Amino acid sequence: MKRAVVIGGGHAGCEASLSLARMGIPTTLVTGNIQMIAAMSCNPSIGGPAKGIIVREIDALGGEMAKVTDKTYLQMKMLNHSKGPAVRALRAQSDKIRYKEAMRSTILAQERLDVVEAYVKELIIVENTVRGVRLEDGRVLEGDAVIVTTGTYMEGAILIGNSKTSGGPDKQKPSIGLSGQLRSLGFETIRLKTGTPPRIKKDSVDFTKMQLAPGDGLGYHFSFETDHFVPLPDEWPCYLIHTAPKTHEIIHLNLHKSAMYSGLVEGVGPRYCPSIEDKLVRFADKERHQLFIEPESALLDEVYLQGFSTSMPKEIQEEMVHSLPGLEYAVIAKYAYAIEYDAIHPTDLWATLESKNYRGLYFAGQVNGTSGYEEAAAQGLMAGINAALKLKDEPPLILRRDEAYIGVLIDDLVTKGVEDPYRMLTSRAEFRLLLRHDNADLRLTEHGRRIGLIPSERYARFIDKRNRFEGELKRLESTFVTPTPSVNAALETEGLGEIANKTSLKEILRRPDVSYAALMRALREEVRVAPDVAEQLEIAIQYEGYIKKALRDASLFAKEETIRIPADFDYRSLLTIANEARVKLQKVRPLTIGQASRISGVNPSDIQNILIRLRQNPSS
Predict the structure, then answer these.
(1) Which of 161, 191, 365, 582 has the fewest CB neighbours in a 10 Å radius?
(2) Count of beta carbons in the 10 Å neighbourhood of residue 467
(3) How many Å apart are CA 402 and CA 558, to the nearest integer?
(4) Helical packing angle, 51-61 and 373-391, nearest 10°
């Protein structure tokens, strides 16, 4: 029987190994420390703009992150709720201890999944095909597919002030040697950097000087299967503060002592999540910067200083923290640090996340140049799914850009590559109105069912929900009310406005700020659908025109995705296109005209020349 090996027990490795095992592939997860499986080494949260929708998509496909988050969160909040549905996203403050315990329990209980506590020394490659891995102690684990999810561990180095030591997150041992082998195999590696802020002893914080930032307490959840919610009184609060003039003065006086500005840092840091010293340099016009005090775990006397990552020396970190309101006498439990690590250029991968040059070898997570638990988990899930499908001789699952944020993420990576750690943003998605928080199940559950990750009972509930949505939508379209005094009085009571003519319930619901529940109350009708279906109805009706336009645009986009380019197409012989385009096309080897058009440096005339060659010789 064919087997798989997953290297690394972070968020990518967890989703990869679970999906493989659940799809019937015996799998071994190799991790340096079983206790660190699914560790939240940086921020103790899941979700946020765009990222929260990725977590919903992971769940709709049959992944695990959403379920574990719903079991272990401390606070839940819907971001951008007052804005349009395209930018709404859920964010949870997670209990970092309970999260990794819950995920570890799931991993250890999963059938066909073994866990080995060890470090991988090298990949075993025979005739450009992966055959397994060799561990540091000499043992060999055979595998017909290997997924590399080494996170920030590959040649990891910890930087604080002028100190640079070999290490991984949370004082763990780094992975040494694997990136050297990858370079010898022809992979081009890049050096990236990320960082984390100090952790503060909770009992040393004066919360009276801070602005309370509570959760919503509205029963939000990431997983479509969750039916238990933490009541608002039991949710943990966050607090908002801002940097002070003294904070800025300390940082500017000591900027040369930061690892980032002393010349010690080699890696490229995240553009959208800079350190506090980088914020002061890049946004010199800002008088202050927003920071959040966030709980890390009910089992820890520590809080997380969101927005204050730094690589300053420890004594300077003390001064910086004590300059902040409410932290004048704070005790630092863990000092901040920056971490450098090796990653690969993801343009070396197909959209399945398999290597273009080595069969059966996949990469997922921060090793592909991304940042964030959510992006890592999504890649791990897709790499595991596609490895399993390939081992079962079934077609791959490649999500389109108009189908999922996960599709946008992977397409961006393998088509455009990265120069700094990639972070998913709503602005990266051309069809974000189609890729909403509320409809991830409608978009992706059928895929999850087809590949075997959505069990029958869950699928039946999904079909029932979809039928209820479609049935109630038809009823709203076909049910009319007349403008009698009693009807208008009832509508006015709920603040829905009067009607002048015979009007369908759908047209009334189309009005801004009208809710399904308020409409049913006004007309004394039975509420026929659950709140999540009611939300889908409100969005589908109130944004109908915009959604139809987005669907038309997506249809035009899809046409270019259907024009296939052979994997062995020789762009070097296409002398009618610019040299820059020829080089980039040959490296990326796009599989569709749509993908080719998204490569930087490839212009419309280059695309036309490719189309001409394809018409002349479709198999070229």
Answers:
(1) 191
(2) 10
(3) 8
(4) 30
Q: Is the Cβ–Cβ distance between 529 and 472 less than 8 Å?
A: yes
Q: Under a CB-based contact definition with an 8 Å cutoff, are residues 4 and 29 in contact?
A: no
The CA–CA distances, whole Å, from 612 to 153, 333, 444, 528, 609 equal 46, 64, 35, 55, 5
Quickly state the pLDDT bin for 68 (edges 50, 70, 90): very high
Helix (H, G, I), strand (E, B) or coil at 334: strand
Q: Options 1.10.150.570, 3.40.640.10, 3.30.70.870, 1.20.810.10; which CATH number does 563-616 get?
A: 1.10.150.570
Name the token pair of 59. 């769940």
Q: What DSSP letter does each residue of 576-616 carry, written as one string?
A: TS-HHHHHHHHHH--SBHHHHHTSTT--HHHHHHHHHHHHH
In the prediction, which pLDDT does 619 show?
61
CA 476 centroid distance within chain: 36
Rounded to the nearest integer, the mean pLDDT of the chain is 94
Radius of gyration of the chain (CA): 26
| Residue percentage of the chain with pLDDT more than 90 | 82
The bridge status of strand 89-94 relative to strand 73-79 is antiparallel
Torsion 474-514-59-433 (CA) sign: positive
pLDDT attached to residue 83:
86
Nearest to 422, CA basis, from 51, 58, 149:
51
Give the integer Cα–Cα distance in Å for 574 and 356: 21
Taking phi over 0 as left and psi of -120 to 50 as alpha, with beta for the rest, 219 belongs to: left
Which of 253, 385, 262, 363 shows the shortest CA–CA distance to 316? Answer: 253
Is the CB of residue 46 less than 8 Å from the CB of residue 159? no
Q: E-strand spans in 247-389?
A: 290-295, 302-306, 332-334, 337-344, 361-363
Give, in words, the CATH class of 4-197+340-451.
Answer: alpha beta
The model's pTM: 0.95
Segment (H or E) for 247: helix 245-253
Query: 10 Å Cβ neighbour count for 200?
Result: 25
Q: What residues pair up with 37 in beta bridges, in sequence order?
A: none
Pairing of β 211-213 and β 238-242: antiparallel
- As a whole number of angstroms, the distance between CA 347 and CA 416 comes to 7
Residues 6 or more apart from 424 whose CB is under 8 A from it? 50, 51, 54, 372, 374, 375, 405, 408, 409
CB count within 10 Å of CB 383 equals 31
Query: What per-residue confidence (pLDDT) applies to 447?
Result: 98
Q: Which two tokens stand for residue 464?
A: 């029932």
Q: Which of 65, 71, 56 is nearest to 373 (CA)?
A: 65
Sort 521 into a burial class: Cβ within 10 Å, 0-12 / 13-18 / 19+: middle
CATH architecture of 199-337: Beta Barrel (2.40)
Neighbours of 283 (CB within 10 A): 10
Which helix (H) or strand (E) segment holds residue 200: the answer is strand 199-201
Residues 6+ apart with CB under 8 A from 67: 59, 222, 223, 225, 226
User: How long, in residues, is the chain?
Assistant: 620
Indicate the domain borders of the chain.
4-197+340-451, 199-337, 456-547, 563-616
Query: Which residue(s) pair with 140 in the sheet?
Result: 134
The DSSP letter of residue 270 is: P
Q: Domain 456-547 belongs to what topology?
A: Arc Repressor Mutant, subunit A (1.10.10)
Same fold: 4-197+340-451 with 563-616: no
